[in-house]
Every structure is written in structure tokens, then in C-alpha cells.
Amino acid sequence: MTSNEALSVLFECANKLETKSETWFSAAIYYHTFFKECCCSAVFDKYLVAATCLYLSSKAEEDHLKLRDIINIFYETIHKKTLQTLDDYFNLRESIVNCELFVSRVLHFKFNCEQPIKYLNSYWRSVKHWLSKEKIDFASLTTTSKSFLRDFCRHPNCITYKGKHIALSIIDMCLDVSNLKTSVPSEWKHELCEDFSRETVTAIIADITWVNENKLSTNNSFKGKSQ
Q1: Does the pTM exceed 0.85?
Q2: Which residues are in the Cyclin N-terminal domain (predicted)?
């Protein structure tokens, strides 16, 4: 299985569980950080790590998800059927609890992430003011921006950038695909974020584009234990 497949399941399960955006973003950051930092990460089932990261992020973001629900939703999403026995459930539960401690150690128990969502919301308010004379469906634009953020979270480079730079790049991409760049001030990026660089924005947009060009389908192999 690939990380892209595991992250696809993570995002689908987060959607089914109706988590906050901050929760699935943090889960993706934990996931990429784990596989970057852990020298023995190759032996771990990526679906198990994804489920564990979502459980950890739900605690960090105070999203109050039940481990039982995470296990059931992950299993049903991957296998297209419900868990058959209590033994299967408790085996998966034990695997996630054990994995939780290991992932936490790899993360050095650092669970706080700089959230692009708060910057997206703030920046969009400014952009909306600049585009007040345009007939625009802002609900659609904000939905698109969150979709781009989810796409970017599939790329391991998402752990290397500040949340505000990610948000700025995503808005730039949304304005570009919507042909709205000419309707905002020429120096709008500097007005919203003084420390941005054109190179960073270009790199983030390139990563989002790469993800969209290389998306894979979900594979079915959540075993809940090391392989």
C-alpha cells in the first residue's frame, strides 16, 4: 500500500466522522512526520498509523472522537463490511493503543500544529472585501480552498511550511483557477502576509498540482498490526 492510499482512507474516515478541519490536518502532519522520523517505519501498516494519527489528533484538537468509532469506520471504509467479531475489534483496539504510544514517542509528544485553516478564514475575509463588486460564490471558493488543503496534506512537504504560507498559496491558486487575480490589489499577498516569498508560494502550488496529477485509488488491507 502507499501513503497516498492510507491518507485517502484517513480523509474519507474523517469526513464520515465529521471531524473538524484542524483534526484531519493535524492527523496528516503526524502521519508524514512519523514516516519521516521513524527509522523502522517501513514495518508498520500505513492504515494502522493513519487510524492512530487520527485518534491522536482528535485528542489534541479536542474533537472527542471515540476510538471505537474510529476503528469501525476505518474497517468499514477499507473492507466494505463491518467488523464480524469482538475478538477482531479488541485486536484492532490493542494495535492502535500500542501504536499510539510509539507514534507519540516519534513525535516527541509534540502535538500542536500551526493550522492553515485559521489563516484561510482570515485571509478570505480580506479577499472578500476586495472582491465585493464581483458576483462570486464565496462558499464554493472556500470549499475549493479546503479541498486544495486536503490535497496538499497528501504530500510529505506539507510538514515543512508555515500554516500562513500554505493558506496564502492556496488562496493564490483559487484566485488563479477562478480568473480573479486581476480583481485584487497587485500586492495583496504582502498585505496579508509580510514574510511570504514567491518561491514558497510557487513550491506549494507545484506540490498541490503534483498530488492532483498523481492521485491513486484506495487499497483494501487494513490489518491493524505491523506487517
Answers
A1: yes
A2: 7-109
Which residues neighbour 107 within 8 Å (Cβ) at sequence distance 6 or greater? 30, 33, 34, 37
Q: What is the pLDDT of residue 41?
A: 62
- Grid coordinates given for 109: 509528544
CATH number of the domain encompassing residue 171: 1.10.472
Last residue of a domain, one of 107, 139, 170: 107
Q: Cβ(27)–Cβ(53) under 8 Å? A: yes
Same domain, 16 and 92: yes
C-alpha 119/C-alpha 146 separation (Å) is 12
Residues in the chain: 227
What's the domain range around 57?
Answer: 3-107
Measured CA to CA, the distance from residue 138 to residue 166 in angstroms comes to 19
pLDDT, tens only, 26-50:
999 999 999 999 877 678 899 999 9
The DSSP H or E segment spanning 56 is helix 46-60
Q: Are residues 97 and 126 in the same domain?
A: no
What CA–CA distance (Å, rounded) separates 15 from 65?
A: 12
